[in-house]
Amino acid sequence: MPRGQKMPKEGDFIAIQSYKHDGSLHRIWRDTMVLKNSENSLIGCNNHTLVTEDDGRHWVTREPALVYFHKHYWFNVVAMIRDDGIAYYCNLASPYVLDKEALKYIDYDLDVKVFPDGRRKLLDVDEYLAFSKRWDYGPEIDHILKKNVRMIVDWIDNEKGPFSKDFIAIWYERYLELSRQRK
User: Which Gene3D superfamilies does UniProt cross-reference here (predicted)?
Assistant: First the structure.
């Protein structure tokens, strides 16, 4: 964050803005509660959060979801807390930046979905190939993203970071505590 700018702290709400490689706005999540904000990462929670798509459509998230962003990894993780277990949506994306307006990142189309039963699926490969050509991602970004897909799979296999049951339990409980304090 720029010097002199107040960093969001635990319990604050921030917006999240996703962009495409060409700089166009892709999607906005209006209110994400910050659970932890450190030098390298931000953990938050969305719950019935208003989302605005680039075409102006609006929708509201259905369930609580922990979000994990890191300044050194080219992905972010959304852990959706559902009645049948935890489902994950991992966006291949640039490391985030945080300014007074929002947490921002570039979405690179590829996604890894993990179902509550542990099955995984790589999504939007066709979209990635099309946008990669259109906006000339180039071999460097392609290499970085493929390396980060392998890292996500390793994290899933080893229950690392947001893929750990303890991570989910600790941060969801913290979200519930902070929500109760706000009432």
Answer: FomD-like
27 is catalytic: yes
Percentage of the residues of the chain whose pLDDT score is greater than 90: 95
Location of structure tokens 């590829």: 110
Report which residue type is found at 167.
Answer: F
Instruction: Give the DSSP letter of residue 8.
Output: P
Interval 109-125: pLDDT, tens: 999 999 999 999 999 99
Q: What does pTM read for this prediction?
A: 0.95
Q: How do strand 25-37 and strand 13-19 relate by DSSP bridges?
A: antiparallel
128: helix, strand or coil: helix
The residue among 167, 161, 157, 166 whose CA lies nearest residue 76 is 161
> Nearest Cα to 69, choosing from 97, 108, 48?
97
With respect to CATH, is domain 12-176 assigned 3.30.930.10?
no
Measured distance between the N- and C-terminal CA atoms of the chain, rounded to whole angstroms: 30
Catalytic residue among 3, 27, 62, 182: 27
